[in-house]
Amino acid sequence: MIDLTNAIELSRLIESGDITPIKIINEVWKKIENENESDLIFTQYLKKLSLSHAKKSTERAENNSRKSMFDGIPIALKDNFDIKDYVSSCGLKNSSFAKAKTNSFIYNKIIAAGLIPIGKTNMTELAFSGLGVNPQFGTPKNTVMADIDRAPGGSSSGSAIAVAKAIIPLGIGSDTGGSIRTPACWNNLVGIKLTHNSIDTTGLHPLSQFLDSIGIIGNNVADVSALTNILNNNSTSSLYAKFTSSPKLLVATNYFWEDINSDVKTSLNNCINTLNKKYQIDHKHIKEIDEITKILDKYGNIIYYEAYHNWKNIIENKSINISKEVRQRFEQGKKISATDYKIAKNKVLKLRQKISRYYDDYLAILTPTVVSTPPSLKEITDMKNYNKANLLSLKNTRIANLLNLPTITIPINNDKIPAGISLSAEPFSEISLCKLAINIEKAINE
pTM here? Predict the structure, then answer.
């Protein structure tokens, strides 16, 4: 049996000739066939395509002409990224969407690096919920809290569960308000939201043009960081260079700790105490966070406005099957005026400039990734419970999108209660963020 949890180790085995991409991909398909939840994880399978790519990748490995260190590594894409001649369901099972005429930029990027697409993964309907529930394709179960059936986190639920179940080592999704980081956190995985527009989002079906970002999920920081660098055309060697001075970190004391689950809070505080032995960590009230929540409360949520107008034709067509919980969220955007939307957006842009002052002194801001634990699927069949759980699932993560901060979540070593710590850096500083995260992960697990 081949261990599919570590992309870098698989790459090393390919490079040494101990294994071939064909063998890796065959192992992936064995796992998919033996996995009871495969049809809940994947919305579309790309078996023929993946085997074709595996054959070519094996030939390149034999000829010492690999495209990148991840040539031959299996990966899956959330089903809102276009692949030519395939329909992007965007989480809707019986939609009338046409087959894509071209590939998304991100698909072309992974193919150019030699990664092998396995399938398109399940997601919340139209990517508009942090819980990962999909009544149309079905909902994969949370992999950490298995006492009862619990939400996987979303909206990139399938990508996260495919990685958590060791079907693939890496998954790609979109992150507009936490859609990578919430499912990563709730399944004890690593997830990174890249800076908005650091990678072209052409061919990603938009939820919010102001906030949509590319994200990656993996089992460890090194894998996620390596793929981040590959996608950004950077050398992976930069991830292991030493810092010229010890990084200073800042814990935000306000907002992010409100409504937090007591077990999650304890885990986070223990983690910060551990990190305090190796890093200078300051604690401050960040007033810009308070300001951003006041703006949204007064003028309306930017994501609601853009989401509604992006999907207006679908939302207003009552014959199209969309769950009432998701449809209700979209309809909130209908109530926001264009004037209020523009005011909110301009005020948020000014706050993005103001938040940059903290990065004069600190490499990253530390926060709890998600304040809650995965709710039971039975509990959130009630609309009131669903809305409350959904707000908590995205409460913290949405701030990084609004402020356009690249952010990575790292799991805290706890097999019973999923919890993650987030590191947010200044825009377009993914290299230093990933380098820091590699060291933070090591300190947490020592």
Answer: 0.97
